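Tokens for chain A. Residues wanted.
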């Protein structure tokens, strides 16, 4: 298990290769170890994110930091779905202040960095 400096449980949500809502829901279910009855729809995701009883082990009493990475290609391919996903993340965070959802920037295959950490756009 990974924890951040504030002792929250850190869970990475890697969306690399996700091209649609079904893929997003599958990745969320896997990353968060959601129960089999998870409905794989926007309401079910919002409910699961704000329901500490289904959070990964070690998060209930400490808080949960969900780090979303590899999201840019999905956001570009499905902007309406991505807007809805962001609304769901925001709603869940508002429901439970022990939840933080962070969108990681960088790491895109579209703009690779060299070993010195410089982007091809520098």
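Reply:
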């Amino acid at each position: 298990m990974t924890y951040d400096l504030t002792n929250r449980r850190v869970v990475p949500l890697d969306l690399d290769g996700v091209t649609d809502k079904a893929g997003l829901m599958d990745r969320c279910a896997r990353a968060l170890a959601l129960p089999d009855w998870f409905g794989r729809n926007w309401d079910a995701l919002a409910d699961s994110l704000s329901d500490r009883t289904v959070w990964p082990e070690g998060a209930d009493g400490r808080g949960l930091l969900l780090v979303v990475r590899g999201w840019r290609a999905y956001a570009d391919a499905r902007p309406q779905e991505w807007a809805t996903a962001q609304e769901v993340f925001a709603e869940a965070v508002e429901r439970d202040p022990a939840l933080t959802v962070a969108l990681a920037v960088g790491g895109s295959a579209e703009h690779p960095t060299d070993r010195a950490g410089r982007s091809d756009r520098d």
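The first strand starts at residue 9 and ends at 14. The radius of gyration is 15 Å.
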